Amino acid sequence: MARANTWNNSDGLRIGFGRHTEDNGVANVTGRYGAKRTMQLMVDLVDVTTAATEANTPIQHAQIKRGSIITNAYIQTVVAATSGGSATLDIGLWGRGTLATPVTDDANGLHSGVTIAQMTTVGEIVGLTGAKVHEEDAAGTPRVGTTVGATSLSDCVISLEWNTAVFTAGRVLITVEYIEPSMSAVAAV
Question: Which pTM does this prediction carry?
Answer without folding.
Answer: 0.80
